[in-house]
Amino acid sequence: MSKLDKQSVIGISALLVHAANIDEIYSDHEKDLVKDFIKSYLKDDDSNEILKQAEEIEKNSNQLLNYTNIIKKNSMDIKKDIIEHLWKVIISDNSVDQYESNLMRRICGLVYFPDKECAEIKLKLLNSK
How far apart are the first and last CA of the chain? Predict the structure, then answer.
């Protein structure tokens, strides 16, 4: 899998934080999932520091497009990995509400990721819980 640069990882991490915050419960488990994403791309960086930066960006920006443009430029493999991380964060509390589903639909549309594949990833993760 090709790599994402640090700025891209920070931006996408902000999107993961946004997904975690939609249900207004931002748990330590969700933070750990975001850090897992960070570590999967930036092994040598401090994931806590990057998470802080991502949380700051998310707090100050309600522009979903900023983040999706980063994703859109990447390969289908990377898109798939990011969608999978988003779903992991969303289903970590064992429920998916309409706002979370709507967010995923919007993101998939914005980054040209097939709905069918998005649904398959969600099902796979739900079934592995």
Answer: 25
- The Cα 96–Cα 103 span in angstroms is 11
Phi, psi of 111 (to 5 degrees): -105, 10
Q: Where do we find the tokens 């709905």?
A: 115
Domain count, the chain: 1
CATH number of the domain where residue 55 is located: 1.10.3680
Please indicate, yes or no, whether the overall pTM of this predicted structure exceeds 0.85. yes
The total of other beta-carbon atoms located within 10 Å of residue 107's CB is: 22
Contact 122, 95 (CB under 8 A): no
Report the C-alpha gap between 25 and 122 in whole angstroms.
20
pLDDT band for 46, please (50, 70, 90 cuts): very high
Gyration radius of the chain's alpha carbons: 13
